[in-house]
Amino acid sequence: MHKITLMNSKGGCGKTTIATNLAAYYAAKGYSTCLFDFDPQGSSANWLSRRNENRPPIYGFVAGNNKMSPVNSNQQQAPSDSQIAIIDSPAGVALDDATLKALVKNTDTLLMPVLPSPIDIHACAHFIEKILIQGGAKQNGLKMSNIGIVANRVKTNTVAYRALCKFLDRLGIPFVASLNDAQNYVFAHEHGLGIHELSKSRNVKDQEQWSELLNWLDTKAMENSTTNKQAGNF
Ligand SMILES: Nc1ncnc2c1ncn2[C@@H]1O[C@H](COP(=O)(O)OP(=O)(O)OP(=O)(O)O)[C@@H](O)[C@H]1O
Ligand SMILES: [Mg+2]
User: What whole-number distance in Å separates Cα of residue 108 and Cα of residue 3?
Assistant: First the structure.
């Protein structure tokens, strides 16, 4: 199973948006897909509860009180043949060290959405340090090359976007994709959909941008299957 976690210290950077879009994409591709919501706000679970039951299924779980509760099903835990687990986490400020460590330990690939603003760039740099130190990334088998940055809500040709690109270049962590600021994300979320489930004519550009992210994740899935990180279950 390929475990992909969305994480960053900043609220509102797009963790849930990317988590739900990934879950919808993999489910539509026929993968047995789970979505774990570790955020007490429950936004991913809420999205899943709005998903039409005729859509490709996603096994949803909410984390709370040291246990997992299913969303919209009686499935008490991830099916043993699950292929993809998407983990949505709360903003880093709300993450205690023990949860941070557990998430790092149970992650094959970590995606960090960042908004193109100086405040977010600064916070992102600090959070990477936190993942390495408090999260014990090295001891828990999470390599820097398995952390990918996704610039989100981008408006190209702005000073803020160019500053973000410059920062990411220096960082030495893969800069995987840039996603535009687009109303399609808001619409899809409201309807329990991913943008790949909207008509292509509606969002060709958005889907093109996603292909960079999806290709990178495919490469990581292949690498992880050969290194076979045995992290265990939540
Ligand atoms: N690429 C995008 N284009 C337009 N709107 C977006 C995009 N990404 C996210 N949003 C919107 O921005 C808001 C915050 O996004 P989201 O909830 O995914 O962030 P988050 O990091 O999960 O926030 P939190 O830390 O509160 O859990 C939402 O209203 C969402 O619809
Ligand atoms: Mg969220």
Answer: 5
- Average pLDDT across each block of 10 residues of the chain; the chain has 234 residues. List them in order: 94 97 97 94 95 94 86 84 94 81 92 91 87 88 91 89 84 88 96 93 89 96 72 47
Residue identifier of the C-alpha nearest atom 3 of ligand 1 = 181
Q: Which of 74, 73, 86 has the alpha carbon at shortest distance from 26? A: 86
Closest ligand to 7 CA?
Answer: 1
Residue 180 alpha carbon, nearest atom of ligand 1: 1
Phi/psi of residue 37, nearest 5 degrees: -105, 110
CA of 81 to the centre of ligand 1 (A): 30
Can you list the domains of the chain with their CATH numbers? 2-227 (3.40.50.300)
Asked if 57 and 229 count as a contact pair (C-beta separation under 8 A), the reply is no
Residues at CB less than 6 angstroms from ligand 1: 11-17, 39, 41, 43, 91, 152-153, 179, 181-182, 185-186, 189
What tokens appear for 89 in the block?
Answer: 């986490």
Rounded Cα distance, 54 and 13, in Å: 30
pTM higher than 0.85, yes or no? yes
